[in-house]
């Protein structure tokens, strides 16, 4: 598994460990997650260290012995930046993953790739289906799509692969700079949550526990294909901010501000019927319930530091 120190990766690792699976992490380090680091330190999870190019003899031997490969940590997918870097730098983020897939893929092996709905770009209609054209408008989307292309090596070598195009994830443990915790922290600190003026753009907000469910199902069923993973329900930023205010009991109304000129955003709501049929996937967390859980986590984690954090 790669990317176990990230938001989704740490939650997925916890589910693997809880299910009694034997897990080996590969990468330069354990990442930012204290949970992941503790699992490695305790010897419950093995870490094969290699540099960021994933070009190492120990890694090759590890991949040859593994039955399945789970690829997380392709970046925190979002809409906050456009295509700002050169193609060479994007290749630098994709080629190591392609190298790992190429080394691993062969008959009887299975790959699960955590991709993103950013591969679709801003869509003129919803819901978006897997058969719709891809048109990434951010660096994260471009990298995700390139990694999906790399996964096609699996089919050529008679391995199977599941590509999961996740919608916007949220939940306990996500980084402070992400959209949902930023709104929650402000509200808990007694400040008006501030959101950008693209208030009519809808996003499909998926609880991280539901994202983990989809990955576990893909791994167990060895589903071969590309699947949208979301709720199928669109929520605007204005609605999200208002819901946060209600859940936190904040007395300040949300404030709408002008979007930065470089911001790239758009409405993307996913059609998840294919995942429902092939993976038996159905999102279990309503947005209000999931946000309530994250509010509790942030309150417990930051406590008196909320005003400073906000």
Provide keyphrases for this structure.
alpha/beta, 310 residues, 15% strand, 4-stranded parallel sheet, Rossmann fold, globular, two-stranded parallel ribbon
Q: What is the topological layout?
A:
Blueprint: H1 7-18, E1 24-27, H2 34-41, E2 46-49, H3 57-65, E3 68-71, H4 87-104, E4 110-116, H5 139-151, H6 153-156, E5 160-166, E6 168-170, H7 179-188, E7 194-196, E8 202-203, E9 205-207, H8 208-221, E10 225-229, E11 235-236, H9 237-248, E12 255-257, H10 273-279, H11 287-302, H12 306-309
Parallel strand pairs: 1-2, 3-4, 4-5, 5-10, 6-9, 7-12
Antiparallel strand pairs: 8-11
Helix pairs in contact: 1-8, 4-5, 7-9, 7-11, 9-11
Describe this structure in words.
It is a single chain. With about 300 residues, the chain is of the alpha/beta class. It has a domain at about 65-175 and about 205-235 and about 265-285: NAD(P)-binding Rossmann-like Domain (Rossmann fold, 3-Layer(aba) Sandwich), CATH 3.40.50.720. It is about 40% helix and about 15% strand. It has twelve helices and twelve strands. The chain has helices at about 5-20, 35-40, 55-65, 85-105, 140-150, 155, 180-190, 210-220, 235-250, 275-280, 285-300, 305-310, and strands at about 25, 45-50, 70, 110-115, 160-165, 170, 195, 200-205, 205, 225-230, 235, 255. The strands form five sheets. Strands 3-4-5-10 form a four-stranded parallel sheet, with helices on both faces. A two-stranded parallel ribbon has the order 1-2. It has a two-stranded parallel ribbon with strand order 6-9. The radius of gyration is 19 Å and the shape is globular. It starts with 6 loop residues before the first helix and ends with a helix.
